[in-house]
Specification:
Structural class: alpha/beta
Distance between the termini: 128 Å
Shape: rod-shaped
Strand order of the largest sheet: 2-1-3-4
Order of helices and strands: HEEHEEEEEHHHE
Largest sheet: 4 strands, mixed
Strand content: 5-15%
Number of strands: 8
Length: 242
């Protein structure tokens, strides 16, 4: 009888030991509900956290994350609320590598425009006032070495504002005529100061604009009888319309 009781005690102790071992193993493998549940890797091989946001570089609710990105659009370089930088548009022509229309910051100078367009190897920069301040609608004409220009011409033609001649002052040609010449208001004397234009063609220009209205573009002057493309090319750096 005593032996039977001893066996029962042994069995009970063994059972309790086994239950304890199983319990310890169970809790060691499976974390409690208060622990962090490990999620499997997604299709892209990126682990996810509890809320499904990517762990590698992602952001959850309330974070700024990618909200600070501009989706690849170019940055203006100005913060919100900053005053807009005033700009001007100028035309660069003549002995340059990339003639055309350029936008610059207001207050920039002739040399800034030429740097954008790129001076050609045969550009005669000494004919220009490189320090002159540009204005909106100015035209910078860079002459070539050996190119003949009217006396006093420095290559600057402005089209903005009253009396816009060269930037920083007028360009006085023969007979005291200031360049550039506005085709829509020029007198016969002023027109005759242009290369290739004599009294007959000067009167023809005045007659044409009286009958057809103001010129909208300097190149429109080729519509005047007697003025061809070659004559226009000679006078192009010296004329404007406004």
């Amino acid at each position: 009888m005593n032996r039977y009781r001893v066996d029962i005690v042994i069995y009970l102790v063994s059972a309790l030991f086994l239950i304890g071992a199983v319990s310890l193993w169970w809790h060691g493998v499976w974390p409690s509900s208060s622990g962090v549940v490990l999620e499997p890797f997604g299709q892209d091989g990126i682990g996810t956290g509890l809320e499904g946001y990517p762990v590698s570089g992602g952001s959850g609710p309330g974070d700024q994350g990618d909200d600070n990105l501009d989706n690849g659009s170019p940055s203006s370089g100005l913060k919100d609320g900053s005053p807009e930088v005033p700009t001007i548009v100028v035309h660069v022509a003549g002995a340059v590598l990339r003639p055309g229309v350029y936008e610059l910051i207001e207050g920039q100078r002739v040399h800034n425009a030429i740097e954008l367009a790129g001076a050609a190897d045969d550009a005669d920069l000494d004919m220009l006032n490189l320090a002159a301040v540009l204005r909106d609608s100015d035209k910078v004409y860079v002459p070539r070495k050996g190119e003949s220009l009217p006396p006093g011409w420095t290559g600057m033609a402005g089209t903005s504002g009253a009396g816009a001649g060269s930037t920083g002052g007028g360009n006085s040609g023969s007979g005291g005529v200031s360049f550039p010449i506005n085709l829509n208001t020029a007198t016969a004397k002023e027109l005759e100061a242009l290369p290739g234009i004599g009294p007959s063609l000067a009167n023809a220009i005045i007659t044409y604009r009286t009958e057809h209205g103001p010129f909208k573009d300097p190149h429109d002057v080729v519509a005047v009888p007697g003025i061809g493309e070659k004559t226009y090319q000679k006078m192009a750096p010296l004329i404007v319309v406004r």
